[in-house]
Design brief:
Layout (H helix, E strand, L loop, with lengths): L3 E5 L22 H7 L2 E5 L7 E4 L8 H13 L4 E5 L7 H6 L5 E3 L7 E2 L18 E7 L4 H12 L4 E4 L16 H5 L2 E7 L11 H7 L3 E5 L14 E2 L2 H5 L1 H16 L9 H16 L1
């Protein structure tokens, strides 16, 4: 198959056009130029002559008639299409129920769908200055009930913890809101990374963003989640490991260096993100 025309259908929550000026990989080529080199024409909401339509359904925050119309439109699509499910199953259960494994990538794939990795640009984790960072644990995220319980345990254990979010946490460790997550995280040696839901192998961009910030991260996720390309670059959140964090930091920093300075980071590159979509789109367009 030669050139490929993809029509990105509108979504109430996210648009991929915002990524076209970012770097596709460490070569520095932009996403827009990379797609051009792949002979892919990518246009938003112009399905007329498209080979494949790209859907990013999200029933989040939509109810009643609006939600029903979105679901019916999703079901009725008959032309070649690719579906990206970028929310956990608990947030958009209808989307997961209606999606077909043959043309869907998902952040919570379970044993059903192909894996969707959210992409981030490569950055130098600056490990040579790690010893100069604040010797505390940061946590950037919303105050969900399970997180509050866990953070309370960390406070009670005497862990030096700084929590950042727009919504206040009911804990003394809450420090307010920060605009730049990566710049904030890069000030700290350690970080807690907790997925919104620990089910269906859900895996967002959070852990990789901690790794590229040079944080020794303690990760909370679905125990069934397998991410072998990041082995050694983070620790599971275990109270004993957190208490003894300085003893484990050296080996994790070596793991971070291995990930960020080899091809191990590439599943999170924009090149890999678009390659997966293009490959699936070509299959559907045959």
């Amino acid at each position: 198959m030669g050139s490929l025309h993809i029509a990105e259908m509108p979504s109430p929550t996210w648009s991929l056009g915002a990524t076209f000026g970012l770097k596709a990989d460490r070569s520095g080529i932009s996403v827009a130029d990379y797609l051009k080199g792949c002979d892919v024409t990518w246009q938003p909401a112009n399905p007329g002559s498209a080979d494949v339509r790209l859907y990013k359904p999200a029933t989040l925050g939509r109810g009643g008639v609006g939600c029903l119309k979105a679901i019916l439109a999703f079901v009725r699509q008959r032309r070649p299409s690719v579906v990206l499910l970028g929310e956990p199953r608990e947030v958009t259960p209808y989307d997961y129920f209606l999606a077909s494994p043959r043309n869907t990538l998902a952040v919570a794939p379970g044993d059903t769908f192909g894996r969707l990795y959210f992409a981030s640009e490569w950055t130098d984790p600056r490990l040579e200055d790690w010893h100069k960072r604040e010797d505390r644990v940061c946590w950037i995220g919303r105050p969900l009930p399970a997180r509050i319980t866990l953070a309370t345990r960390l406070e009670e254990a005497g862990i030096a913890l700084d929590i950042f979010s727009r919504t206040p946490w009911p804990l003394a460790s809450w420090r307010g809101y920060v605009e730049d997550e990566q710049a904030t995280a890069a000030r700290y040696k350690f970080r807690v990374v907790a997925e919104n839901y620990a089910t269906h192998a859900y895996h967002s961009e959070k852990l990789f963003n901690a790794i590229r910030s040079g944080n020794v991260a303690f990760y909370v996720s679905d125990p069934a989640l397998k991410i072998p390309h990041l082995n050694g670059a983070y620790l599971p959140l275990d109270m004993a490991l957190v208490r003894d964090r300085h003893s484990h930091a050296g080996s994790v920093l070596k793991g971070i260096e291995r990930v960020m300075f080899t091809s191990a980071w590439e599943p999170y590159s924009f090149r890999a993100f678009y390659d997966r979509i293009i490959a699936l789109a070509k299959e559907q367009a045959r």
